[in-house]
Amino acid sequence: MSGLCIGFDFGTSNMTAYVEGKGVVFSRPSVIACDAHTGKILAYGETALAMTGRAPASIKIIRPFIDGVISDIDTTASMLKSFVDKVCRFTVLKPNIIAGVPSNITSLERKAFLDVLTMAGAGKICIMEHPYAAAQGAGVAFSKPRGTMVIDIGGGTVDIAVVSLNGIAASKTIGNASEAFTNDIIRYLHRERDLEVGYLTAEYIKKTIGGAVVRSEEIALVSKGRNVVTGTPVNFEITSTEVYWAIKEHMDLILKGVKDVFASISPELCADIYENGIVLTGGGSLLYGIDAFLESAAGVPVRVAKSPGYCVAKGLSKTVHAIKKHKNSSYEFKYYD
Q1: Domain holding 94: CATH number?
Q2: pLDDT tens across 78-111, in order?
Q3: d(C-alpha 184, C-alpha 199), whole Å
Q4: Is the distance from CB of 269 to CB of 169 less than 8 angstroms?
Q5: Could you tell me the residue range of the domain that residue 290 belongs to?
Q6: One domain, residues 126 and 149
Q7: Would 74 be classed as within a structural domain?
Q8: pLDDT surpassing 60 at residue 158
Q9: Cα–Cα–Cα angle for 19, 138, 306, nearest 5°?
Q10: Are residue 66 and residue 210 in the same domain, yes or no?
Q11: C-alpha atoms less than 13 angstroms from C-alpha of 51 in its C-beta half-sphere
């Protein structure tokens, strides 16, 4: 007899939860607002995100995951426990939890995930790497000896992996992803325009006019910020071309990571990828033109998966039945067949 299965995709920008029999139940920003003195959680998700840059000193805004790893164990565990208690309020057995995490995390970072999930009330625990889960969620067929490259572009990390024969043949994690683009825009405006903008403003600019390629027809956006010289609020206009140059350095780092993975695999796998192409998953793959940028630079077909932000959660959902086959009270492994 085994408990309910819950899947968590722990992302730097968003956390997605899958519940057995219900599907994906929520996808919320990975932000927590808590009392600065008592540590009590006041809000999380969209409500906490809206407080960013606006909260008084009595409220502390916490991002529980930085570059894909846990930054605050106790607060993160409390948030997860409240969710698990809601989902499992009518059950007696402890739930089985499958967690999607970045590939190539250290043993210490892996232990932090296990500790948090145990504190949240998990019975059995499975750790599954993002690109493997994303490949399953994107519908990539990799049970045969044919290689496919999957690039999961999250908020804090970019996971690049070649999957074949139900496993990962090669992988690389880059600690600069979608949130790095947002910070690039903040730095660009400060450096080039003497303007200060908050994180939420920069994020809106990125999603609205950002792009990995120069648009054939330039577009612009009027936003608000503060002039660093006068210290007064101002309206300003920023163009899509400016945003392209602001984030170009980190886009080039992703391309370098792709080339590094190509250099680490066999010629046979390279040939497979040339034929099968590259699949993009994760919320960062929604950036305008990122598929065209990689396809042009790498010379292989590139496609964005359907609903890329939910691919990891969907991949986790496809494996919930397998966790019940194991009798250990607590265990950890990377892959399911």
Answers
A1: 3.30.420.40
A2: 888 888 888 887 777 888 888 888 877 888 888 8
A3: 11
A4: yes
A5: 140-304
A6: no
A7: yes
A8: yes
A9: 95
A10: no
A11: 23
